[in-house]
Amino acid sequence: MEPSINQEQLKNVIKTALVEVLEERQDLLYDAIEDAIEDVAFARAIEEGESTELVEREEIFKLFEGKS
Q: Which residues contact 62 (CB under 8 A, 6 or more apart)?
């Protein structure tokens, strides 16, 4: 007969494993938070860009080159 684990035990094992991973690899959590913040910023920039007037491609490249 195989050993069985109930749902509550499985939940506790998963919680414990997750806590250990996050304690040992905090960089994973930081990277995930950083990615989420960047995604929000990109979404806001896109929304803002959709409500502004269009600019010619050449004008953008002039700005990059420092020629206004």
A: 68
Q: Specify the pTM.
A: 0.53
Which residue type sits at 50?
A: E
9 vs 4: CA distance, rounded Å: 10
Integer Cα distance of 43 and 39 in angstroms: 6
37 closest CA partner among 25, 48, 45: 45
Give the model's pLDDT for residue 36: 97
Token representation of residue 1? 């007969």
Q: Are 27 and 34 within 8 A, CB to CB?
A: no
d(CA 45, CA 27) in angstroms, rounded, equals 27
Of the chain, the end-to-end C-alpha distance in Å amounts to 78
